Amino acid sequence: MTRKRILIAFAIIGVVAIAVAVIIIAAHLQQRGHGRAAASSTPIPTRSAAPSSGEVAHTVADRFCQPTASKNTWQRSLTPYLTPDAWQLYSAVRPGNVPCAGIHDDGTPVGDQQTTADRAYQFTAAQGGPVTVTLHRDTAADPWLVSYINAGGQE
After folding, report:
1. Is 67 left (phi over 0), alpha (psi -120 to 50) or beta?
2. Spatial contact of 95 and 70, defined as CB atoms under 8 Å apart
3. Which of 26-30, 54-58, 142-146 has the lowest average pLDDT?
4. Three-state DSSP class for 50?
5. pLDDT score of 31 more than 80
6. Is 3 left (phi over 0), alpha (psi -120 to 50) or beta?
7. Which of 39, 61, 70, 147 could be 136's S-S partner, Cβ–Cβ 3.0 to 4.6 Å?
8. Each residue of 116-149: pLDDT tens digit?
9. Cα–Cα distance, 71 to 89 (Å, whole number)
């Protein structure tokens, strides 16, 4: 054998060895992915805690007191936070008829409705007077949902 043929043989053996190594590593990584989750430097996002009753009340008061919003936008922003009865009640309301605008505080708990199933918070609006948001949940594991909104001093 000539020197040239020996070098070619070693080159072919090297290329074949590298190809086999790549195939084995790829198969190992693919199998590892099916058996269990691959380690990652990016943390897996965890489900955040449910919002508190005060946070839900503030969100709803802020979204409710937007008389310049379109009806569809207004409804979509409120719907996830309302009980079915409240949704039915407020689905007929036009945002332009809402007597409040511009919630500018975090609200304070009001009344005797501070139980594990019922809460109420009052907020100050820039226009239209106080806004009271009443929340309810059936069990401690259920999310807080708004059952009633008293805006602009209405009774």
Report:
1. alpha
2. yes
3. 26-30
4. coil
5. no
6. alpha
7. 147
8. 899 999 999 999 889 999 999 999 999 999 999 9
9. 14
Exposure letters 19-30 (e unless 16+ CB within 10 A, then b): eeeeeeeeeeee
Map residue 13 onto helix, strand or coil: helix
C-alpha gyration radius of the chain: 31
Q: Which pLDDT band, with edges at 50, 70 and 90, does 155 fall under?
A: very low
Tokens of 106: 């975090």
C-alpha distances (whole Å) from 10 to each of 13, 15, 55, 72 are: 5, 9, 71, 73
Main-chain phi, psi angles of 146, to 5 degrees: -80, 130
pLDDT averaged over the chain?
84
